[in-house]
Amino acid sequence: MTTSSKPRSIKRWLKLKYTQLMRAPGGPSFVALGFAIGIFVEMFTLPTYGLAFFLIFPLIYMMNASLAGALIGFVFGKIIFIPVAFINSMVGGWVLPNHIKISVPLAPEWLDHMLLVNLKLIVGGIIDGMVLGALFYFPVKLTLQYVANKRKEKRKLRRLSVVDVKPLTE
Of 73, 104, 120, 165, which residue is most buried, by most CB within 10 angstroms? Predict the structure, then answer.
């Protein structure tokens, strides 16, 4: 494979994956649920040092959702995480009691503070992740249904045009 064909092969691979995602057996709700799970998990992955990523797999299995949709939602969540992290911290601060203190014996004060900040991010991220997952589920599902319906219409029109054109035989 030459270097000039690399971008073309990547483009073809991406198109194949897109087509597979659009033709997923469970339909648009299958993919949209996976997307929602991906966003949900991403909202508290950073404060758990990436370990929350592994939560995607059992959630997908238990809820019968799309792994590809979840990975796309996870990447989308990474893109929007920085501005949402401030909201996660605020929500975590609202939910957790004001008098909460974390004190690890023989640990410096700054570590206790960092653990409290991470706790706020985790709690707020779980709440905000559930809200964002629910909010994104419906637009993603409707968009996928729209694209699938357009594809069906296009195939139907193409089939009708092939039937209308009859070969000239005498």
Answer: 73
CA distances from 159 to 67, 148, 153, 167, 169 (A): 33, 16, 10, 15, 21
Alpha-carbon distance values, 116 to 49, 85, 111, 149 (Å): 15, 15, 9, 49
- The pair of structure tokens assigned to 159 is 């089939």
**Are the C-beta atoms of 56 and 73 separated by less than 8 Å?**
no
Give residue for tokens 């909201």: 87
pLDDT at 169: 65
Could you give the count of Cα atoms lying within 13 Å of 93 in the half-sphere of its Cβ? Answer: 7
Residues of the chain with pLDDT under 70: 1-5, 163-170
